[in-house]
Amino acid sequence: MAKITVHPDFKIGDISERLFSAFLEPIGTIVNGFMYNPKHKTADEQGFRGDVIEALKASKVPAVRLPGGNFVSAWQWKDSIGKKEERRVHLDPAWYQYIPNDVGHDEYLQWAEKVGTEPLYTLNMGTGTFQDAMDLVEYTNFEGGSYWSDLRKKNGHEKPYGVKMWYLGNEMDGPWQLGSWSGHPEDYGFRCREVSKAIKWIDASIETGVCGSSASFMEDFPEWDEKVLDQCYDVVDHLSVHHYHSAPPDDVKALLGGSLYYEDFINTEAAVIDYVASKHRSPKKVMISFDEYGCMMRENAPLNPGWGRYNMARSHYRFDPKRPYILHDPDNMKHFEFPGREILHMLSAMSVQLAFLRHADRVSIGCMTGGLGALCSSDHDNVWKSASHYGYSQMIKYARGISMKTVVDCETYDMPGYAIEDTSQYTGKEGVNYIDSASAWDKENKRLTVFAINRNEESDYSLNIDVSGFTGISGVKHYEIFSDPDDPDKKSSVNAQDIYAPVENKSGSLKDGVYSANVKPLSWNVFVFEM
After folding, report:
1. Selection from 484, 485, 491, 456 nearest residue 339 by Cα
2. Vertex 100, ends 21 and 142: CA angle to 5°?
3. Residue 188 located in a structural domain
4. Which of the residues 224, 316, 430, 473 has an alpha carbon 20 to 30 A from that of 201?
5. Secondary structure class of 436 (helix, strand, coil)
6. Which CATH number belongs to the domain containing residue 509 in this structure?
7. pTM above 0.90, yes or no
8. Which residues are catalytic?
């Protein structure tokens, strides 16, 4: 037996429309193949795949961070505009690839327009200059009458793009980053103060995000975040952080309990933000942006105790004379497939999104790494819907309005601590709820939605959801996605894209404000209370 209680007085905060967004970095064939392939049967006049555009448009993905990641710290945007035949080809040392700039600055933003999603743009704060950042915002957002805004018009886009969100670099505390500010947080914070100030003088409507820690494992976490914010708190709006949670192979409890480490990260960053705000005597609240995140199972690697912070640098420098630079052919796209069980990838991602929802008063943006592929699985020829598509789409549709606290009473389990490798080491957790839950009250659409994951691999639960404090409930719908006990490894494909489509479970009942249902092992459940 398990119980969830939600009450109208349990308000956490307003849910940002950007909370369930995606991240795109030009690695491999993510751009040249998935986004762009002029030889594809559905390609439009710019070479964009129409099947991908239509699939993402239908998913209503609210925002996409582009073209972010390690790539951006050496990208020269000025060489990516104008006539394609005149654009310069550059090396991307971060990923050992050629950047032909077939998809350049304008194409990224025009693709976002076609998808109907908001672009969240990352500035080059590595090799890029202060002036480059100012010129980029002027080119992108200024109405006209200046060199860069008029050049945008000449290049075919009369109206400003109106990009609202600008990230001030990517993972700038990381020694692996080109132009890294590792060891110099005050200098980076000062530069961000000046860049943010300058670009807001060009467009006062924009928001900026400054890089916090690349991971909670960083040697100088959370001191880096405090020192950076202390320099620029008054002129930035978001603190950009990343986290990739790893669990040992076949450890389902550790994988699905990984959202607890995200919550630890959020709580620490919120405390840092509040501390800096108090130092600045500021009523302003900088929000947290998880603009890269993901969950995975990984083989344990050999550990090197005592190597300290060298572990982080050693794992990223990769000075390999035999590693070639690659030019990715968009017409030679290979299907990428996450290893392991498809249902587990969906459940782990949804668990992190539930953690963000529970902290909607502090987390403003969430961009899932691989989120575009989760919403739109694809290969060279086709697109289809995976398990992650359905869970993700339900979050976009139903997690709206006000985040509501869910009080959960259920069976628990313990997670022993573990180390995947030198830099990904996790302390243990005791008393982890088998039922993972969050809730959203959408007054505009007159519905309360309760989300619940059953982390238990073996047991189902009789679940009571107490919403007796709400009045006017006219009906309840229970949608579920679950692991098939007869075929737990089944995978979706273009010919089997409805195998994980949500099923409406009509066996539940509502009495005196309590909805009684049953949740299956390893299942995703969405309860929609219509008012």
Report:
1. 491
2. 55
3. yes
4. 224
5. strand
6. 2.60.40.1180
7. yes
8. 171, 292
